[in-house]
Amino acid sequence: MLTIDPSKIQTVDDRRDAAIPGNNEATIRFAVEHWIKTAKTAINERSRFAVALSGGSTPNAIYQMLSSETYAKQLDWSKVYLFWSDERSVPPEHPNSNFYAAMTHGLAHLPIPKNQIFRMEAEKEIERAAQEYEAIIRKTLGLRLFDLVMLGVGEDGHTASLFPDTSALKPTDRLVVANHVLEKKTWRMTLTIESINQSERAVFYALGSAKQTIVGNVLQSKRSSPWPASQIGTIERKALWIIDEGAAALLLHSKLF
């Protein structure tokens, strides 16, 4: 049985909410149960759950728990559609691939139809591939985009592969773009801010004290701040930040909560 406690979700501002469930373990469990609850609601209302997955250690821990016996049996996986919020320009079997990470951390063992798993093919002709991925999203999902977009936040304020001072941040009507990240000397494929904000729900996951400064900065900033993560969330579709006590340290000290 899911044990989501609504009282743990608090208002940050008119575009964002935050939940601080406790330590690392409690926060991962809360994130998993929120994921399943979101999926069940979408399936009940729209007969499908379309999620854009993220890379990183916290999402990987979420995938492991989702695929465990306790949680895997709670969802009709035949109605789940997997997409990705961003991808590196590497093959699908590369250890740095977000697709590879999600699959090897448990999702490959779930009974999701293979024709409902849409990886970003970012390893070659990435600009053309981004256009093709956008076409797949539009054809598969129609006007109702993702039911959940999973996101992290980097210490520079980036989210997905939306890095500061990159072309992907410019106003666009695109859902997916190829983004050249000069500081990393590489290309990434990423959902745009517009496509994330048009989706039903965006959720950030930030755990550990190393995240406390950027989490504090972003959640106390305006949308016009230099951090891309601060641009996610609208009045109509608020973003949710799920953060543990370590990542929330500065917020708690500032008495924002």
Quaternary organisation: single chain
The H/E string reads: EEHEHHEEHHEEEHEHEH
What radius of gyration results from the CA coordinates? 17 Å
What count of helical segments does DSSP give?
Answer: 8
Largest sheet: 7 strands, mixed
Q: Strand order within the widest sheet?
A: 1-2-10-9-6-3-4
Q: What percentage of residues falls in helices of 4 or more residues? A: 25-40%
Number of β-strand runs: 10
**CATH fold naming:** Rossmann fold
The share of residues in extended strands comes to 15-25%
Task: Offer a concise description of the structure.
With 257 residues, the chain is of the alpha/beta class.
Commentary on this structure:
- This protein is α/β, with parallel strands linked by helices and 257 residues long.
- It has one domain (16-253): Rossmann fold (3-Layer(aba) Sandwich).
- It is built from eight helices and ten strands.
- The chain has helices at residues 24-46, 57-66, 69-72, 98-104, 126-141, 193-198, 212-219, 249-253, and strands spanning 9-13, 16-19, 49-53, 80-84, 86-88, 148-151, 176-181, 186-191, 202-206, 239-243.
- The strands form two sheets. The protein has a seven-stranded mixed sheet. It has a three-stranded antiparallel sheet with strand order 5-8-7.
- Helix 1 (24-46) crosses helix 2.
- The longest helix is centred in the first third of the chain and has 23 residues, at 24-46.
- The chain starts with 8 loop residues before the first strand and ends with a helix.
- The model has no long low-confidence stretch (mean pLDDT 94).
